[in-house]
Amino acid sequence: MLSSIARVVYRLNFATGRFEYISEAAKHLFGADLEAVRDGGIGLVGRRMVAGDYEAVLARIFEAAASRPGQRVSLAVSYRVVDAKGRVRHCHDSMVIEANAAGEPLAALGVSIDVSSRIAAEAAMREREAQFRATMEAAQVGIFVLQDGVFRYVNPFLSKLFGYAEDELVDHCGPLDLIVPEQRAMVREQMLQRAAGEQGEPYELAGLRKDGSTLPVMIFGSPASFAGEPASVGTLLDISAQKEAELRVRELAEFDPLTGLPNRRLLRDRSTQLLAAAEREDSEMALVFLDLDHFKRVNDSLGHSVGDELLCAVAQRLATVVRKVDTLARLGGDEFIIALPGVHASGAAEVACRLLDVCATPFVVGGHDLTITPSIGISLFPVDGRDFETLLRNADAAMYKAKDAGRNAFRFYSSEMNVATLKHLLMESGLRRGLGAREFVLHYQPLVHVESGVTVGVEALIRWQNPELGLIAPDQFIHVAEDIGLINPIGEWVLREACRQIRAWQDAGLPPLVVAVNVSPLQFRQAGFVDTVASALATSGLDAGFLELELTERTVMQDAELTLGTLSALNGMGVELSLDDFGTGYSSLAYLKRFPVGKLKIDRSFVRDLEVDLDDRAIASTILSMGRSLRLKVLAEGVETAEQCAILRGMGCELVQGYHFSRPLPPEQLVEFLMKRPIAGKE
């Protein structure tokens, strides 16, 4: 009584069982001419109906006729029929039944409509809804629908995460109820933005559980609709594990693992703050540099374990001298630094005498009575310097003066001993000459796949070929170049030369290697840096995909929003980006996720003692785990031994560089190196 193309109109005579009339569309359903359909009548229909549907429809018709004897009654029925092609079709009939006085059907006038498409669509929608709900229910992230400031839907994970039953949240609570009070104003502003249709950025919050405890979360929200009205849909991530990892990395990066004292990094940060306060308050400050005399003899004669115990014992004694406002740090090896805010020369001398006194009593370590004396140098703010590095350098010079005086003594810094200053001036003039005289060269250190030993790229490292002093490493002159404003032209030269060299090797038939170039913070922040990179690529003819720029954590985290724009522009060009010295600074997870960085480099300070230092292993493992979770490549630098390489391989580190494989080499020597080893060039 239906076609797949049009509705079927019919009049059925129950006395004869024949159709007195049926529209032409019926031919498409039964695959026969209209005369055959009319003659086949109700019997033909019955044979085509799905088992059970025919009997049910007839029963409905007879019930309707019996309910209105001698009258007409309207009836709607649904049924299934197998068409001429063997397909099951869903039909819906609207008919008028003519009944005799005995309540028996005489005729039916009706219209059949094919509702198969609608039925299929409804079934598909139900299936999709079921799949969607199952996904939402099983998701291990919080998912919610927000409308008029109230949750209209929350998934089980979100409810469980905050300690609520689902019905306690839906239609009763909103995000403000799950956030600590001090952050609700910010969340309210975000909700208004979503309500206005704005697509916001994910943001971190402190979540508030039902029991009053808190947890760090990250929220993503987007405009949506719910029940035909504006709404927003969001996801909520529990980032407790990531925050704990960040904190662990930060703790391990800022404190000496042996003594528990602040390390150089934390000392610098605290000292910088103390110096800023001293500048504002017009007060003084002293920096004390303490080095243990002949400590190497202890390590050589009794072993490093005894030496480590002695260092811890010394640290404990030194701590008895300092105040709560002072900072006692271990610089490294047997060197200790004390920052003394508000202390002038006489006060610093008094502290130095007390330090000498506490070290005078022998130390009982490993069953040995050990006598160790310190040599102490002191520099004063502001007379000996106005920044941490200058004061440290001058205190170091004073300490060596104390050693020259016979050790177990202290000395104040004086300008006469400032050999470093003279060297700085000589280097300054030499750098200005060297840039014009083309005295700079690049050496290249291979980047190696740890499992295969295949070279996958190189890092370009500058050297200064000084006519008088010979080949000078960058750590001896880069800081001077930054001080005198030469770092930008030097950095630009490095960039252009590295691009030129890689392209020249490509043209010579070498596999196309990626070249990594270090970028100074000052260079990165100069106006037009992106244009400089583009120009270097264009001039050399090097494809952007073969250039990798290395930036430190501190560089990218300083003015993160401005940094994001520059990084995005470079990434848009196709340039690869990596974070160098990772773990030595502090990166917010939220920004790290937003920055288009493809690689993390584990700082060599965490690789150097991997064989013996469990804390360094923990840092390296944490960074590798973080890199994997963020889908970033991780490279360990400063790999010097096979044991370090094996440890890193066991942690899942794929990329390494260091003296174990090769020192930085001049171009011609690097080519020789590459010819002897497998190379995996970038396609």
Write up what this structure looks like:
- The protein is α+β, with helices and mostly antiparallel strands and 683 residues long.
- The chain has four domains: 113 residues, PAS domain (Beta-Lactamase, 2-Layer Sandwich); 100 residues, PAS domain (Beta-Lactamase); 171 residues, 2-Layer Sandwich (Alpha-Beta Plaits); 253 residues, EAL domain (TIM Barrel, Alpha-Beta Barrel), CATH 3.20.20.
- 43% of the residues lie in helices and 25% in strands.
- The radius of gyration is 40 Å and the shape is elongated.
From the structure above, extract its key features.
Beta-Lactamase; five-stranded antiparallel β-sheet; elongated; 683 residues; Alpha-Beta Plaits
Question: What's the topology here?
Answer:
Layout: E1 8-13, E2 19-22, H1 26-30, H2 34-48, H3 53-67, E3 72-82, E4 88-99, E5 105-114, H4 116-138, E6 142-147, E7 150-154, H5 156-162, H6 166-169, H7 184-195, E8 203-208, E9 214-226, E10 229-238, H8 240-254, H9 264-281, E11 285-292, H10 295-302, H11 304-319, E12 327-332, E13 335-341, H12 345-360, E14 363-365, E15 368-370, E16 374-381, H13 388-404, E17 410-412, H14 419-436, E18 440-449, E19 455-466, E20 470-472, H15 478-483, H16 487-507, E21 514-518, H17 521-524, H18 529-540, E22 547-552, H19 553-557, H20 560-573, E23 576-582, H21 589-594, E24 599-602, H22 614-629, E25 633-636, H23 642-651, E26 655-656, H24 667-676
Parallel strand pairs: 16-17, 19-21, 21-22, 22-23, 23-24, 24-25, 25-26
Antiparallel strand pairs: 1-2, 1-5, 3-4, 4-5, 6-7, 6-10, 8-9, 9-10, 11-13, 11-16, 12-13, 14-15, 18-19, 18-26, 19-20
Helix pairs in contact: 8-22, 10-11, 16-18, 18-20
